[in-house]
Design goal:
Elements: H1 4-9, H2 14-35, H3 40-62, H4 70-96
């Protein structure tokens, strides 16, 4: 859901991070609307959680040496993705139940 520009700049520019979060949240929200289960709270939770998770990850990656710390960066990316999937699973469980 992001190109090189967003991937490279979201950790350096707050506006770019918010645009990235808005695009991600909007796509998931549109999918929920198609299912007829969308709620504004779903969008708010998606937007806020995505911002928190990605801001944390970008902050951690910034202080690492990209060549020396590739294992740590890989672990951070896995944690990032697991956190995003966890939020999605919670939202889908919440709207179904």
């Amino acid at each position: 859901l992001q190109g090189d520009f967003l991937a490279n700049w979201k950790g350096k520019n707050r506006y770019i991070m918010l645009v990235h979060c808005f695009i991600y949240s909007g796509i998931i929200y549109a999918f929920l609307m198609c299912l007829g289960v969308a709620s504004i709270w779903c969008f708010v939770i998606l937007m806020c959680s995505h911002d928190i998770i990605d801001t944390w990850k970008c902050g951690e990656v910034k202080v690492l040496d990209l060549e020396k710390d590739i294992t740590t960066i890989t672990k951070l990316l896995y944690i990032d993705q697991i956190a995003h999937y966890f939020i999605l699973i919670c939202i889908f469980i919440g709207v179904v139940l």
